[in-house]
Amino acid sequence: MTNTEHETRERFAGRYRVAPAQVSRRIELAVIGGDWGANGYTTMAQAGLLARELGLRPGVRLLDLGAGRGWPGLYLAAGTGCQVVLADVPIEGLRSAAARAEREALAARAAPVAATARRPPFTAAAFDAVVHTDVLC
Fold first, then answer.
1. What's the pLDDT tens digit per position in 50-98?
2. Which of 7, 43, 64, 84 meets the CB 3.0–4.6 Å disulfide criterion with 77?
């Protein structure tokens, strides 16, 4: 991991250690349309468009790069029945995503993996679709 990647990981880890404030959740509901612990601005309508364009459905394997707390990967899995791997560097975000998956009865179809998009630990063609929303690499 480069120094820049390490610094970025630490900055986001600090954010993920703190649960979203009630005001943040209200803003997310107003801007995104749901309460998914999002860190970006992809709306539920845009996530729905991704699901349709990618043909997400049961049996499809989705990789969510830069998943953070699980947005939009968990939302897509919940709405389409697909399987999702939530990949990100900060463990704290992935822990939150795993807890959400458990609460939403998605744990059997959602797997958090600590991984960077620069060197993903996946084999070629392991996924049918990839999303990468609100992430700058």
1. 999 999 999 999 999 999 899 999 999 999 999 999 999 889 999 999 9
2. 84
Strands (E), 18-69: 61-65
Q: What is the C-alpha separation between 61 and 85, in angstroms, rounded?
A: 8
User: Which residue in the block uniquely carries the two structure tokens 């744990």?
Assistant: 107
Contact 42, 66 (CB under 8 A): no
Instruction: Judge contact between 134 and 66, C-beta under 8 A.
Output: yes
Collect all residues with Cβ–Cβ distance below 8 Å to 16 and sequence separation of at least 6.
68, 69, 90, 92, 93, 95, 96
CA 7 vs. chain centroid, Å, equals: 20
Two tokens, residue 29:
């509901």
Cα–Cα distance measured from residue 73 to residue 64, given in angstroms and rounded to the nearest whole number: 6
Q: How far apart are CA 96 and CA 80, in angstroms?
A: 21
Which residues fall within 8 angstroms of residue 8, CB to CB, at 6 or more apart? Answer: 89
